[in-house]
Design brief:
By secondary structure, the protein is mainly alpha-helical. The protein is 93% helix and 0% strand.
Length: 105
């Protein structure tokens, strides 16, 4: 910048200044294109992240559902085990009665 001021004040024809403006303008165009590209890529990444987050949420829900189903199955298994134990006790009592009846004969 100091150079620009010096050349402008020294009565230069502005050729260097115009060249620098052209370079800066071209650089600005390149930077805008890079910014647009980066913005598009960021939008794609954000969209993909939304998809991934939705997928993670579906997986978490499936896991919660599976855990709930397992808990329900464990509860039913415990109830069935208790019922089986009661039936075994009843069978044992019947076998004992049958054995006692057979001995009395």
């Amino acid at each position: 910048r100091g150079k620009l001021s010096a050349s402008s004040s020294s009565g230069g024809d502005g050729g260097e200044e115009g060249e620098e403006v052209d370079q800066r303008s071209e650089l600005l165009t390149v930077r805008r294109a890079e910014l647009n590209q980066a913005t598009r890529e960021a939008d794609k990444v954000a969209e993909r992240m939304d998809e991934v987050n939705a997928s993670v949420n579906r997986c978490k829900q499936a896991l919660r559902d599976a855990k709930r189903a397992i808990d329900e199955l464990r509860t039913r298994e415990a109830a069935h085990a208790e019922a089986i134990a009661e039936m075994e006790k009843g069978n044992e009592k019947l076998l004992n009665k049958r054995s006692m009846l057979a001995q009395k004969r």
